[in-house]
Amino acid sequence: MEFSIKSGSPEKQRVACVLVGVFESRKLTFAADLLDRISNGFLSDVLKRGDMDGKLGTTLVLHNVPHTLCDRVMLVGLGRERDFREKEYREAVRSSVRALAQTAAVEAVSYLTELTLKKRDVEWMIEQATVATLDVLYKFEQYKSRKPDETPQRERELRKLVLSVPRRSDLADGEKGLVQGQAIGAGIRLARDLGNTPGNVCTPTWLAEQARVAVEAAGGLCQVLEQDDIAALGMGAFLAVARGSAEPPRFIILQHRGGDEHDRPVVLVGKGVTFDSGGISLKPGESMDEMKYDMMGAGTVIGAFVAAARMKLPINIVALVPTCENMPAGNACKPGDIVTSLSGQTIEILNTDAEGRLILCDALTYAARFEPEVIVDVATLTGACIIALGHVATGLFSNQDSLARDLIAAGDEVGDRAWHMPLWEDYQEQLKSPFADMANIGGRPAGSVTAACFLSRFVKPYDWAHLDIAGTAWKSGKEKGATGRPVSLLAQFLRDRADLATGQTVRRGRPRRDPVEVVSDDDAD
């Protein structure tokens, strides 16, 4: 998919399709109004006939619009003007790209990126449009017998999208937004590809190799520790989970050295259980195939790391990924077993299906070696988080409220929302064990909270946050597949940390000027 940024009048575009917006009141946007004027009211007449009402997400493709040079004009519904915000903007972009993919147009120019949003500038508009477009066009067809390149419709798929900016003076900001959007989009795609790959292919060894290839291509460093190395470190909790599988575990260490060598890094930790059967505490058979997504914490951490490396952020970043399978076997860990973690703390395993926290606790302890500025772990950790928040928001826990606020603000900036959950000392009581320092579960009440409480015991004295993505990492049903969340949130968080590290004010989309009545005479290709 090829993107470009241009400034030009819509009626002069010699392309297969021009995309413009219409509000629910049938009010035309600036670009749509220009087309309406040049075509002697052609668009207004169509709207008056009732073929489109401007509701958010609706589209209408018009052919042979008088006095224009394009083959098609697509009208995109924006909803009510007074309600048009960031969420509506993203939905309008997504719906326009979905509709565009149903046409034979191989190239298009979108004027949706010229819309006005309070406190949002050209750079933000272009970046978000790029990420949304790449997300909509994502396909995972590697395991279909008929290759995508062999299908007839491949010849008429969208290949080029021009994103328009209001003025020539906006071109530099637009290009910057495009570069950032492509980096984040690539990180999301990588995370989705890793998650959607079946468990018989996506083993810990394969995941480690994919991480190495992607990270080194982005300019980062990758080290992979094997089973003997993990054992030598003393990661007893991690190895207990891996014990029942024929696939050996791996511990992936990624580094981006964008800051000064003495700068403390941001450490990301991702749960990488490439298949979770539940172990001896076997899961029900229904939907167990979706347990290939239990490595999406790892997938999103790797994806966010790659995005940050591609953006060349001026900070130091470390990503740690413990990866293994959780399988039942004669040598698998059992309920009642007691293991010793890397921290020296002992854990009574009451449920082998609470395995994510066991591999994470050793990785979190290992993170202290880097003397991190902050630690953020990401994991499909608890079904209880789905009960609490559904599939809308990621659960956020932290031992530092200011860190939680930073993560929530980053998610709000890019539409990848998280919700701050409690981490009070009262909940720690549920993890008491008569035989070990702690149990690995705290019972049914507040399951996502007690899981976070467990992890909190391995991060002292660092600022730490935990993102439970069990409800947001993938979708079931007809849209089944990895979502790539929360790559966008993590990437924005890292950009915010980079702004702080370089003494800049954290950027939240500067207000843009109102559109003027004159546009460039440049034609887009």
UniProtKB/TrEMBL annotation:
Family in the record: Belongs to the peptidase M17 family.
Residues annotated to bind Mn(2+) 1: 276, 353, 355
Enzyme Commission code(s) on record: 3.4.11.1, 3.4.11.10
Binding-site residues for Mn(2+) 2, renumbered to this chain: 271, 276, 294, 355
Pfam families: Peptidase_M17, Peptidase_M17_N
Active site per the UniProt annotation: 283, 357
Cofactor: how bound: Binds 2 manganese ions per subunit.
Source species of the chain: Microvirgula aerodenitrificans
Subcellular location: Cytoplasm
Cytosol aminopeptidase domain span: 351-358
Keywords: Aminopeptidase, Cytoplasm, Hydrolase, Manganese, Metal-binding, Protease
Lineage of origin: Bacteria, Pseudomonadati, Pseudomonadota, Betaproteobacteria, Neisseriales
Catalytic activity line of the entry: Release of an N-terminal amino acid, preferentially leucine, but not glutamic or aspartic acids; Release of an N-terminal amino acid, Xaa-|-Yaa-, in which Xaa is preferably Leu, but may be other amino acids including Pro although not Arg or Lys, and Yaa may be Pro. Amino acid amides and methyl esters are also readily hydrolyzed, but rates on arylamides are exceedingly low
GO cellular component: cytoplasm
Keyword Transferase in annotation: no
Main location: cytoplasm
Region (Disordered) location: 504-525
Task performed by this protein: Presumably involved in the processing and regular turnover of intracellular proteins. Catalyzes the removal of unsubstituted N-terminal amino acids from various peptides.
PANTHER family for this protein: CYTOSOL AMINOPEPTIDASE (PTHR11963:SF23), LEUCINE AMINOPEPTIDASE-RELATED (PTHR11963)
GO MF annotation: an example: metalloaminopeptidase activity
InterPro entries: Leucine_aapep/pepB, Macro_dom-like, Peptidase_M17_C, Peptidase_M17_leu_NH2_pept, Peptidase_M17_N
One Gene Ontology biological process: proteolysis
Domain of life: Bacteria
Name of the featured protein: Probable cytosol aminopeptidase
Cofactor requirements of the protein: Mn(2+)
